[in-house]
Amino acid sequence: MEYCRTVGRVVAAQSRWEVAAVSTPTSSARSRHWDEVYDTKGTDQVSWFQPEPVVSWELIDGLRLDRTQPVIDVGGGASKLVDRLVERGHTDVTVLDVSAHALRLAQHRLADRAWLVRWETADLLEWRLRRRFALWHDRAVFHFLTDPDDRARYRELATAAVGPGGYLILATFAEDGPEQCSGLSAARYSGEELAEQLGAGFTTVTIRREHHHSPTGADQPFTWLLTRRTD
């Protein structure tokens, strides 16, 4: 199987989810940066590595989504969240990341289940959206957007991507979290500040705090925000 050319199963969808997404050329500098991080450290030594995506799955499982509804993991990279989604029977899963190397690692880990997933190699800020999702999940992409224009683009894209009544899960460094990660500056947020960044298109459902422990033992406080798209 040629995992790099995997295109995901075609699943019948409700009209609000129709029209497939397409891949977009990546920003070469960002792509090289994250490819090098994964190449140097591997999947289990990057600072954001989790043996299990505990908080992500607790929030997702609580939503009781129909397993055929479209879900996207933005900046999913080599995260094991996709494994859990496939195991639980989700049939319309997209993983988007700027690092092709990270996605290949996830594909090889999934082996003969990789074809069940749509893999998108793209810089999120340049990604051409052509469908909507019932759930948008982002653990640790948004806090790298330190430019106001980039945050505005993210808000515009997320608002367009999440269908009416759909959900957005967003996790960033908390106010007392790290100021840098993988050689890049990172913003820090409270739950209320994250909700303000998303704007009036989303209503807050839950705010959580997590203490993530990196593979080196560093404590990284995270803020989690679960929101619902306003009709």
Key traits:
seven-stranded mixed beta sheet, Rossmann fold, single chain, alpha/beta, 9 strands
Q: How big a fraction of the residues is strand?
A: 25-35%
End-to-end C-alpha gap: 41 Å
CATH class label: Alpha Beta
User: Roughly what percent helix?
Assistant: 25-40%
Secondary structure class reads: alpha/beta
One letter per element, helices H and strands E, the order comes to HHEHEHEEHEEEHEE
| Biggest pleated sheet | 7 strands, mixed
CATH superfamily heading: Vaccinia Virus protein VP39
Spans of 5+ residues with little confidence (pLDDT < 50)? 1-26
Protein model, in words:
The structure is a single chain. This protein has helices at residues 28-41, 54-63, 81-87, 100-110, 148-161, 191-198, and strands spanning 71-74, 93-97, 117-121, 133-139, 162-173, 180-181, 184-185, 202-213, 219-229. It has one domain (30-229): Rossmann fold (3-Layer(aba) Sandwich), CATH 3.40.50. Strand 8 and strand 9 form a beta hairpin. It is α/β, with parallel strands linked by helices. The strands form 2 sheets. It has a 7-stranded mixed sheet with strand order 3-2-1-4-5-9-8, sandwiched between helices. A two-stranded antiparallel ribbon has the order 6-7. The model is unreliable at 1-26 (pLDDT under 50).
